[in-house]
Specification:
By secondary structure, the protein is mostly beta strands. Helices cover 3% and strands 42% of the residues.
Length: 540
Amino acid sequence: MIRSVSRLICILFGVSTPTGAEPSAAVAFTFDQYEVVIGSAERQTVLTGFLLGGAVADLAVVSIDENDDRRLRLYAFGDSTWVPRLGTTLRPEVLFVDVANIGGRDRLIAYEPGRLNWFDPETAMERALVAVTSNFNPPRSGEIPHVDVTRDVNGDERDDLVVPDVDGFWVFVQRSDGAFADPVKIGPSTDMSRIYGADGYRYDPWSQSRIYEMDYNRDGLSDLVFWNEDHFEAHLQDENGLFASVAEPFTTDVAFDSDRFSSLATGDMTGRVLHSLGDLNGDGVADLVVFLLEGRSISSKHSAFDVYFGTPTADGGTAFAPEVGAAFQSDGSIQLGMERHDFDRDGQVELMFTTIEVEYLESSLWKRFKGFMGDDIWLSLEFYQMEGGSYRDKPNAIRRIALDGVPSHKEPGWVPLDIVLRGATHERRRTQKSWPRAFNSTLLVGDVTGDGFSDLLIGDHPRIMDLLVGVPGPDLFARQPQDIAVAVPNDEEYTWLVDLNKDGKQDVLMHHPFTLRDAHGARRLPPGTEPHRVTVLIAR
């Protein structure tokens, strides 16, 4: 059953800014909403891509049937909705799938032990792509997950392959003719425990690679750099977009205890951890960021992101200043993450920090009572905009998002710090009885209005998604959110942004594995007893 649903209209109002600017006039913004029912199965994986060559992206649905066959179904857009176009069986050893643009065409790629294949829709056959081994094993039986193994690592706007293995990543650079160069093994071993607890089926091993993209030798090309016990190693990119198989080592005087964020979740939960490498101050030289967590007791915990600015060296490399050049702290809160964005596309880096108040990290009878009465736990999103080559001492804007969705009588009222530090998708999440959805509310950043400014979408309610429209100026986003009345999936892995019709606007795609929900948005019936649905919101 496939049907097109209604047109959703959001009225977007301008707001006053700290500069005193007048609010802009109201603007009608429209989504066209579609519902696609894709059948009943315990677990199904949905991907998008221009696989059949049409003007609108196709939906690819992958599942394992009762005969243990790997089934693939392609839905193409026609007659004002998505309709079934192709159904076939993939090779019996397929473990995970992804979509890559190869030679200018989107291709479904599938991994089986020892190689990646690509699916040819014209012949309904799989063809060999590259020989490679991977240590990624689906954490659940009966599913073929979506594992993101594509990324443009050299900045040529072509998809390269980044395949995790026991001792680093196999990096295959795509050439101009669509063929892939010989692989280079880069990086340390990857800790998959931080992503194996995802409630959905979309996994991103590269996010745990601890491999950083920076121009170490300042030749205008991005290099791949990682920390190796007591020094950095840089795989330099050449003029052909390929990376050297032998790394160039370099050291730093900046002290930190580890490059693993998860190391803070054990013991006394204090220390200094390498967070990232990247140009934060816009001078063209990469900087080093260290996350600091201190405090002997929970109530005394405090954190900071310390930035050590990069400087050119005489031999053509990069060194990091031994003293802190900039520090970001949140009063009364612990910082959980820092992301870099260019929300207004001015070429300067804006920063988004996720924080939680320290008071939420300790239990008490009063907090448990408030949780029982529906008092939720809140995270803050703190935004910093660069002004004149530096950042403010305080955030330009702050927005809030619920820890685990809509408040209900099931709220615990607090959350342990070790769960906070492990993150939303750690494998131990499956045993967190009181916090099954902690830190996994939907949060998306992308330009859905098409005006060149990034918008913020927050889905911490099962029936409403908030749209905070990007605006010029220091506020970055409209202060008043616009409500989109739409059922939001239970976990953020089931919602993503993608341009489905090549109009330059990000559309919203949601996969609903079930329909009947409890107060928290969780399923009421056993998996596979309800048909899966895909909701598509096309930005107009």
